[in-house]
């Protein structure tokens, strides 16, 4: 499932939720409120950086990192009616390929743990439809990597930053439908075959999520 398809599903879900529950009583967001969201999340890296030799010579190849869709969990706490802190947790698996003229080979598969901590501004916490924006930091942790086709690949962990936009639609009581889009900027150094080949990979994933939440 691509990020575009998930975004379309998210829009249709929001429209359906708004229409079906327009007259239902709901719990608004407020200072001291906790909100827990369970989402389906698409992580789509924007990699395509050149692979060069240890001396920096061009190889004609580039690093390609495939998308993945997994469940994620988000927890928000409203410091004020409009300001909230959010932490998201989840893990995705990505295939790393070396691609170029006449070449399309899998070199590595890795799991990534990319927690994001963000500060959100909610525009209409007392309304049924509550859009928000946010900004924060993330940490990319690569683990359980498996090399493929005779290659060895080492990826550096590190910090990045993220921007965010989304909306909550209250449906009934404490329950909401949540749609969230994040853009994360993160660069990792990839060393292939002990450094014989290397690449500065700008992963810069787009993270699209849709799910349901509950306020406490």
From TrEMBL:
GO terms for cellular component: outer membrane. Residues 1-22 form the signal peptide. It holds the Pfam family OmpW. It comes from the Bacteria. Keywords: Signal. One of its GO terms (biological process) is transmembrane transport. Gene3D superfamilies: 2.40.160.20. Belongs to the OmpW/AlkL family. This is OmpW family protein. It comes from Caulobacter flavus.
